[in-house]
Amino acid sequence: MSLNRSEKEAVINEVTSLAAKAQTLVIAEYRGITVADMTKLRVDARSKGVTLSVLKNTLARRAVTGSTFEVVADQMTGPLIYGFSEDAVAAAKVVADFAKTNDKLVIRGGAFAGKALDVNGVKQLANIPSKEVLLAQLCGLLMSPMSRTAVVLGALAAKKGEGAAAEPAAEAVAA
């Protein structure tokens, strides 16, 4: 079904606004995926803040012109699904996780921080822990020196308490 000029402009404007807000773009070929599987992918993506779109490649190229995602415009050929996310790793994680269970979804590439990513780059981005996990790890690292100090001081206090209790007993035996 062909789009008229105003519909094309609306699509370009929508994708341009998505690209302006997004940190990451992941491109994947979806040839042969069933509608049910595509629906599962979209539901999973939506729950994680990722916008998945099947777009005409010429419209997608126009929409990313002038944005940080322009670096992947040459990869926009064939039946592609475009995943935009404001979270740096969410789009890569959603697409890579789905590709593990469905071999018909083939990751083609992506872009992050103005740099083009190949398939391995997208997979590496997907392996980065979530923001919450990274914050928990940081808190653990910050707490580690304090908890070690507390353990050492507790052990010293216990040892001092044992030594103080042993001294009167030793004096009693000597007397």
Automatic annotation (TrEMBL):
**Per its UniProt record, what Gene3D superfamilies does this chain match?**
3.30.70.1730, 6.10.250.290
Key words of the record = Ribonucleoprotein, Ribosomal protein, RNA-binding, rRNA-binding
Give an example GO molecular function.
large ribosomal subunit rRNA binding
Pfam family of this protein, just one? Ribosomal_L10
Q: Which CDD domains match?
A: Ribosomal_L10
Q: Which InterPro entries match?
A: Ribosomal_uL10, Ribosomal_uL10-like_sf, Ribosomal_uL10_bac, Ribosomal_uL10_bac_type, Ribosomal_uL10_CS_bac
Keyword Phosphoprotein tagged: no
One cellular-component annotation, GO: large ribosomal subunit
- In its UniProt record, which GO terms are filed under biological process? translation
Q: Which residues form a coiled coil?
A: none
Q: Which domain of life is it from?
A: Bacteria
The entry's function note states: Forms part of the ribosomal stalk, playing a central role in the interaction of the ribosome with GTP-bound translation factors.
* HAMAP family on file: Ribosomal_uL10
- Family of the protein in this entry: Belongs to the universal ribosomal protein uL10 family.
The subunit structure is: Part of the ribosomal stalk of the 50S ribosomal subunit. The N-terminus interacts with L11 and the large rRNA to form the base of the stalk. The C-terminus forms an elongated spine to which L12 dimers bind in a sequential fashion forming a multimeric L10(L12)X complex.
Q: Under which name does UniProt file this protein?
A: Large ribosomal subunit protein uL10
> Which organism was this protein described from?
Paracidovorax wautersii
Q: What is the lineage of its organism?
A: Bacteria, Pseudomonadati, Pseudomonadota, Betaproteobacteria, Burkholderiales
What gene makes this protein? rplJ
